[in-house]
Amino acid sequence: MKLLALLLLLAPSDFTGDWSYRQGSDKQGERLELRLREGQLTGLYHGLEREGEHGLFHTLVEIRDVKVEGRSLSFVVPERRLYAKLPASGPDQGFTRDVLHFSGELRGGGELVLRCRSDGASCPDDTMLFLRGLRRAPG
Questions:
Q1: Is 1.10.490 the CATH classification of the domain at 2-132?
Q2: What is this structure's pTM?
Q3: What is the 3-state secondary structure (H, E, C) of 13-79?
Q4: Which residues contact 52 (CB under 8 A, 6 or more apart)?
Q5: DSSP3 helix / strand / coil % (the chain, rounded to 5)
Q6: What digits encode the pLDDT tens for the residues 30-67?
Q7: Which is deepest, 5, 14, 132, 137, by most CB within 10 Å?
Q8: What is the dihedral sign for C-alpha 40, 30, 101, 11?
């Protein structure tokens, strides 16, 4: 009963911070920077676009349509410009119009489990486990 009461008391500030996700053996991965701005949760999505023979591209975009309800979070990653190098700045290499829709929940131990869907095949994975804090690349 206490756990249920605690989960219902979660606020947008419980989601704030830096979150990272690694896919398989990627040395780089997706990151979320979630912040409170005037009482509203906002954030940046640092993504990777794995374009097969064309290579790996970096993206950086502000998330939209952020909704928090209890321990649940949803948001949209809009179309984004593609960059060859980090940080995602300088001349871009094109863009993707494929919108990513994320939804999921905050779990104990600094875990944010998000499901991703898109009309194209742009989701890094169907289900992504983001861990609180920035993780260094392996190796």
A1: no
A2: 0.84
A3: HHHCEEEEECCCCCCCCEEEEEEEECCEEEEEEEEEEECHHHCEEEEEEECEEEEEECCEEEEEECC
A4: none
A5: 10, 50, 40
A6: 999 999 999 899 999 999 887 666 778 899 999 999 99
A7: 132
A8: negative
